[in-house]
Each structure stands twice: as C-alpha cells, then as structure tokens.
C-alpha cells in the first residue's frame, strides 16, 4: 500500500502556540508518525502567533462564501524538520491579541463556536471527495473539542475519510447554545441524542466522540476512567456504548526538545554521566528566584495550569508544614485567580523558601525541571500529563497522585522497585493533603540517602519516553479504522 495520508486537526502546536500538553503532542506526534512512514499534515487556526512565525506561506485554497463563516483562505508552509503545516487564514476570527481560547482578561472568546467550527469545517472539506487539494487524506484525526465537529461535517459529506478522535481532556467540552447548529450550517438531524446534543446544548466534544470511527485517549488508565461516573464528565454512557472503539495510547515526549544534555534553555547541561550541571542549575534557580542558596535543602517544583484539576490547592495547604522540614518550593503557573493569589501570598510570607511565578514561561519551565529535586503533580484527574515524563528525564523524581496517565507512567519507589530497577517516583492514593504530605516526606527521606537517591534519579533518566511506540499504536488505530490489519508492530 502507498503511504498512508493523515490530516491531523489541532487548535495548538508547539513551539508556535501553546497553552498546555495538547501543543506538545501536536508538535511531536505528527513528526513521529512521519518517521514511521505516514504522510501527515497538520491543520491549525491562523492565529497571529502562527502566521508571524512561519517564513512564507502558499495559498492552497480560497473559501470566499462558506455558509455561516467569514471569508478565509487555506495557507500552507513547510517547516524545517517539521511536518507540513496548514493554517486557516481568517482575520475576522483569528487575527487578534490574546490566547487561542481566552481574551486578554481571561474570558472565553464569545465567537469560539465559530472559530473552532471553522477549523472543523475546513478539515472536513479536506477530508471528503470535494477537497480543493490534490492531497486527499485516508484518515482525518481530530484532537479535543475544538476539532470535534469535523466528524459531524464528515458524516454528511460525500467520499468522507474515516474520522478518528483523540480525547486529551474530557473536562473541556465546547458546549454551546443549540442555535449554533443552524449557525454553523450543520444539518438539523445532528441535534439529537444520537448526535451532538448534550443535556440541551450542542457539544463539540460529544460530536467528536459520537461521529468518530475510533476514539483514542492519552493513557490506558484514563481510557478506563472516562467510562466511569466519577471521571466521565457526563460522557460515560456514550463511551461505554463505544467501549470496543476506545483505545488508550500513552503520550510520548519530544526527546530533542526535552533533553538535559542539549536543552537550549538550561544555564548548565547535564547527563547521567555528569550530573554536576544539575546542581549548578539548582543554585542558579535559587539565585534567580531569591531562594536561600543551599544545595542541601530539597527543592520541590510545580509547573502547571492553576486549576482545580491540577490539585495545587493541596500543595498550597501543606506548604507551611513542608517548609519546616525543611524544603523549598517553587511554583510556576497561571490560571484561577484564587490559586494564583494563594501562591503569591505564600511567597510573601516565606521569602527565601517559597517562590511563585505567575505567568507562562517556556524557558523557565525547562530550568525548573532541571533544577528541582522533586516535581509535584497532585492532579485530581490527569488524562496523561507530560511533566512527569520531563521531570524523570531531568533526574527530578515526580511525586504524583495515582490517577490517569500519572498512574501509568510513574512507578512508586519502594525497596523492591528500587532494587529491580522499575522505581521512577512517588505515588500516593487518596486525594488528601495528608497523603500528599506523607509522600513528600517519603521522598525527602530517600533524598537524605545519597546512594539510593542517585540510583532513583538515574533510573528515572534512563527511561525511554520517545514517541515511536505510541506512534505505531496510532498507526494501528488508523489501519483498523480503514478496515485494514494493523500488521502487528
Ligand atoms: P495540561 O495539558 O493539562 O496543562 P500537561 O502536563 O499535559 O497538562 O502539559 C502541560 C504543558 O504545559 C507542559 O509542557 C508544561 O510544562 C507546560 N506548562 C504549564 N504551565 C506552564 C507555565 N506556566 N509556563 C510554562 N509551561 C507551562
Ligand atoms: C490535556 C491533559 C493532559 C495531557 C495533554 C496532552 O491537556 O490535561 O493530561 O497530557 O492533554 O495529551
């Protein structure tokens, strides 16, 4: 068979535009698919951050009168070492300051249904027989709610390629008033329980799930959890019906971008063979953030969206107790005002011990991963999570709540797992402040035993988190959706 062609639909892509892990995945998975022989192209909205960063664009198609949408063009660019990128140039919807989903004051863009309806609409046009391009995908792969309507549009198109949908986070659903069904020129019959209706609203996410031939999510454990009442966010019934079509594929990481031996953001580089750079990064970070420059005090870090999902409230609650141990804590993040304010007030109360940086800073996030001794992720739920991979690779054992992809990717450190070489961090069950506290104390206890700590760090650093295995699993899903055998490996 000739090369399989895949259209990858996403609302963010690193390093061009990033608010979270979806960008990291969209930046790395298509390249990993290309490396195993898949012809992938990525389509994204033409936000200013994307339009400005590419050197030159070719016009691929012009959509002057797409019912329901302002005029737009499809542009294409080749990126050195990257996969071909297509952007929807629609100034009326995308040319503005602010982020992909929120305006500068943190409110959802009121026209988000149109912004991401257009992404889905154009993706569907490229995936059916009327496509204006000579390149015709065999499979259309949508990611998260922003690409969810693609399947609905494809369901009424001629010669549609099969649609695969990946859930990166079931908590973000893109639910809007039903009037958008007509405004987005979707057929009326789509607004049904057997379609995209969800508790009296139209749901982009439900459309993604309902109309997909195969559904994937970003860890095997989360694939099970989303079929339960506890973590199904109302979609569990539908996911249970589709259970045969649901597959969990653990995310990988971009091992070039996240490599302590070559990371351009680090003041000092290091590897398992020479770890002195790690200690120097710690000292440099302590100085940068005004923390007491003491190598012997364990430095705990969190880099995260500051939302209920991430459970940072637990870390904030136990911080005063932990600082007594002593430990130092650094938090980098942005999100809900209350969490930001609590972090800032701890920093004010405990100068030299607790640092809070409110904002999104890619370079600093790398430096923190490299400088810290332990990385804390007390997520209430976590579809996959990426920082536990990054921190392992940077010799910073993660302390995680046993949920979602965290449970799939961190092996609790015990005498046994340290001995058999599987240990990679500290895992606690039961989402309470005391349980988090106990696991930090366990980690600090091991930190005080240099031989064992060095062994744990090394075990973390030599783990393989590259994308190849997962890319092969996606290829298997594509082939199955096409009714072809996946061919094993
Ligand atoms: P999610 O996508 O739910 O936010 P992930 O762990 O999958 O969680 O991915 C988060 C990504 O965003 C990671 O690459 C993380 O380092 C990055 N990140 C989160 N907050 C910040 C921040 N304030 N500054 C820099 N990077 C951040
Ligand atoms: C989502 C999830 C996160 C996951 C990421 C990439 O943002 O919250 O757990 O790692 O998507 O798949």
Give a description of the structure.
With 489 residues, the chain is of the alpha/beta class. It folds into two domains: 5-252 and 467-481, Rossmann fold, CATH 3.40.50; 276-461, Glycogen Phosphorylase B (Rossmann fold, 3-Layer(aba) Sandwich), CATH 3.40.50. The chain contains 19 helices and 18 strands. The strands form three sheets. A nine-stranded mixed sheet has the order 3-4-5-2-1-6-7-11-12, with helices on both faces. A six-stranded parallel sheet has the order 15-14-13-16-17-18, with helices on both faces. Helix 11 packs parallel to helix 12 and helix 11 (312-323) crosses helix 17. The longest helix has 15 residues, at 21-35. The radius of gyration is 23 Å and the shape is globular. The protein binds adenosine-5'-diphosphate and alpha-D-glucopyranose. Residues 20-22, 24, 303-305, 332-334, 360-362, 365, 384-387 line the site of adenosine-5'-diphosphate (ADP).
Which features characterize this protein?
single chain; 489 residues; alpha/beta; Rossmann fold; 2 domains; 19 helices; 18 strands; 37% helix; binds adenosine-5'-diphosphate; binds alpha-D-glucopyranose
Sequence stretches where pLDDT stays below 50 over 5 or more residues? none
CATH level 4 superfamily of the largest domain? Glycogen Phosphorylase B
Binned strand content: 15-25%
- Gross morphology is globular
Rounded to an integer, what's the Rg over CA atoms? 23 Å
Distance between the termini: 16 Å
Figure out the total of helices. Answer: 19
Compute the average pLDDT: 96
């Amino acid at each position: 068979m000739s090369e399989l062609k895949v259209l990858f639909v996403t609302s963010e892509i690193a390093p061009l535009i990033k608010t979270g892990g979806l960008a990291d995945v969209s930046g790395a998975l298509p390249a990993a698919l290309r490396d195993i022989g898949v012809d992938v192209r990525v389509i994204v909205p033409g936000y200013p951050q994307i339009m400005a960063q590419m050197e030159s664009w070719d016009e691929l198609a012009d959509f002057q009168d797409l019912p329901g949408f302002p005029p737009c063009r499809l542009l294409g660019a080749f990126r050195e070492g990257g996969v071909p990128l297509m952007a929807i140039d629609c100034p009326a919807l995308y040319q503005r300051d602010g982020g992909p989903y929120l305006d500068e004051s943190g409110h959802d863009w009121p026209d988000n249904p149109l912004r991401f309806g257009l992404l889905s609409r154009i993706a569907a046009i490229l995936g059916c027989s009327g496509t204006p391009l000579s390149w015709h995908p065999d499979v259309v792969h949508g990611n998260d709610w922003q690409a969810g309507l693609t399947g609905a549009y494809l369901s009424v198109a001629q010669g549609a390629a099969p649609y695969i949908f990946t859930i990166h986070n079931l908590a973000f659903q893109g639910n809007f008033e039903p009037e958008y069904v007509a405004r987005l020129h979707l057929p009326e019959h789509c607004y049904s329980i057997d379609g995209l209706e969800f508790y009296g609203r139209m749901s982009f996410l439900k459309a993604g799930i309902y109309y997909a031939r195969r559904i994937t999510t970003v860890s095997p454990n989360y694939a099970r959890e989303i079929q339960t009442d506890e973590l199904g966010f109302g979609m569990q019934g539908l996911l249970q019906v589709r259970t045969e079509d649901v597959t969990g594929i653990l995310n990988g990481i971009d091992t070039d971008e996240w490599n302590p031996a070559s990371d351009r953001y680090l003041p000092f580089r290091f590897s398992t063979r020479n770890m002195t750079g790690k200690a120097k990064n710690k000292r440099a970070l302590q100085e940068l953030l005004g923390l007491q420059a003491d190598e012997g005090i364990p430095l705990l870090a969190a880099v995260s969206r500051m939302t209920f999902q991430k459970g940072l409230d637990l870390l904030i609650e136990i911080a005063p107790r932990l600082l007594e141990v002593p430990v130092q804590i650094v938090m980098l993040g942005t999100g809900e005002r209350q969490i930001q304010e609590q972090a800032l007030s701890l920093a004010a109360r405990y100068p030299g011990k607790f640092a809070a940086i409110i904002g999104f800073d890619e370079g600093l996030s790398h430096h923190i991963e490299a400088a810290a001794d332990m990385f804390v992720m007390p997520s209430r739920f976590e579809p996959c999570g990426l920082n536990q991979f990054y921190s392992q690779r940077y010799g910073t054992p993660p302390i995680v709540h046993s949920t979602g992809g965290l449970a799939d990717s961190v092996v609790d450190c015990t005498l046994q797992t340290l001995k058999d070489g599987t240990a990679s961090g500290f895992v606690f069950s039961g989402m309470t402040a005391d349980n988090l506290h106990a696991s930090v104390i366990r980690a600090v206890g091991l930190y005080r035993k240099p031989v064992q700590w060095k062994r744990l760090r090394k075990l973390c650093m030599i783990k393989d988190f590259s994308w190849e295995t997962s890319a092969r699993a996606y290829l298997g899903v594509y082939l199955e959706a096409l009714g072809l055998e996946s061919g094993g490996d």
